[in-house]
Amino acid sequence: MKQVLYTVTGNRELAPGVWEMSLAGDTSPITAPGQFINIKLDGFFLRRPISVCDWDSRGLTIIYKVVGKGTAVMSAMQPGQELDVLSGLGNGFDVAKCGQRTVVIGGGAGVPPMYGLAKRLLAAGKAPSAVLGFNTESEIFYEDQFRKLGIETVVTTVDGSYGQKGFVTDALPESYDYFCACGPLPMLKAVYNASSTSGLLSFEERMGCGFGACMGCSCKTKYGNKRICKDGPVLEKEEIIW
Amino acid sequence: MVDLRVNLAGTELDNPVIPASGTFGYGYEFAQLYDINCLGTFSFKGTTREPRFGNPTPRIAECPAGMLNAVGLQNPGVDKVLSEELPKLKACFHKPVMANVSGFSVEEYAYTCAQLDKAEQVGWLEVNISCPNVHNGGMSFGVCAEAAAEVTKAVKAVTTKPVFMKLSPNVTDIAGIAKACQDAGADGISLINTLLGMRIDLKSRRPLLANGTGGFSGSAILPVALRMVYQVYEAVDIPVIGMGGVSSAEDVVEMMLAGATAVEVGAANLVDPFACKEIIDQLPQVMVKYGITNLKEIIGGAHHG
Predict the structure, then answer these.
(1) Domain count, chain A
(2) What is the complex's ipTM, to 2 decimals?
(3) Per-residue b/e over B56-78, b at no fewer than 16 CB within 10 Å?
(4) In chain A, what residues touch B267 (CB-CB under 8 Å)?
(5) Regions of chain B short of the pLDDT cut 50
(6) What per-residue confidence (pLDDT) applies to B142?
(7) CATH number for position A178
(8) What are the residues of chain B with a beta carbon less than 8 Å away from any beta carbon of chain A?
(9) Rg of chain A's alpha carbons, rounded to an integer?
């Protein structure tokens, strides 16, 4: 973890209420896909934890959904604005643990970190595929970005308005040797139950500090109590207690 | 040169700044960020006899200028604190540490304090009789003068280390309870713990916290804390550790003028992990600005004249 001053270089709406923000600055604290940053916003007491979608040596992108006042403020930010950020937080996806044919599964606001993960799986010489779930066609984002990686990508919508009708669990590949998932809790649980292999799941919880000090986001696992912000957000399938 | 040193119940602190219990873990998350030996001391995570997971989540909610927590005293239990946490802390913190203790019965408080009394690293015991987030205990001892005195006596009987009783603001007569603790032998008073609060989710129409209520902390509570420290300073002759909403060197000075010998910083650590270091760095120039050369001399300064 490191406190970094990032400069907003872009902020655009990808789908209604879903925004992509590009930030320039020191990304050395980010060591794994699935990690998050915690953003200080003027007028709000707690920081906003947002997962890192992708990063390179010069900057990073985050994708966030406007769900409250804080994210609404973020959506109005302009290029050039500076942000006080705690960067490189959490235990992300361990690419080394992933199999050669890992399926990355993202649901809604859980899609972004799976993009950075898919890129790094490719860079590690693996051949991942992706399943991206949304409620309806208008909510879909990043399908093209995944396809441009050249990986097999299936999009599902709950209402069948685009792609395969149903949930991500209806579209899991016939053959895969590992899975990584991020999305709403019911989706994670469904993936956990439907999956035939080991895997990693990324969880969400209301956080206080985001770096392991306040014990606000603790959960029980088979390996003992863990903090979603520090020991997670990515946990192993084998340790999860529902 | 300005002098930041204060004397806390017989032990000199390099400065009065102390991270508050529950916002600093057992220290080592912060030790990875800066040398925590710059602190006066710190009060470690509230420790109980048995390990505790605490309350179900969500147990954090944001408020204007503050936050609610309903963690519910998650800790590994006193045995593990002694065998695992304190040895780990020894590697990164070389000063006496303040042991924060909670319990669900007078006997449990005494047991846990007796265990922690054995640890050489522990310089003070801070006995939390004011946790608003656990049922059948914690705060129930802190809202009644007789019960507060009973815990104080029981703890004093098992330790030779200075005992600070940490009081709840959720009372009508804070001075009376502080006085009862002093009369029962307390070496000092810590206050304030969090204020009992609640937030409700407009969509679900249910409380945001799974526990329903939680403890309110952050900048918003500073005036309440100052008022209570001021009142307690008048009521007792033992040192007071002031806390509640402190987030700057100016706040530290203000708290000391109200009567605090040392000052704890809580929620600010969670928003800015460098908060305590920055406050300590800022203190000398704030002292110069207000014509203070020796910090000890301003304790209770607002009461004179």
Answers:
(1) 2
(2) 0.93
(3) ebbbbbbbebbbbbbbbbbbbeb
(4) 45
(5) none
(6) 85
(7) 3.40.50.80
(8) 22-25, 29-30, 32-33, 45, 53-54, 57-67, 69, 71, 74, 218-219, 267, 269-274
(9) 17
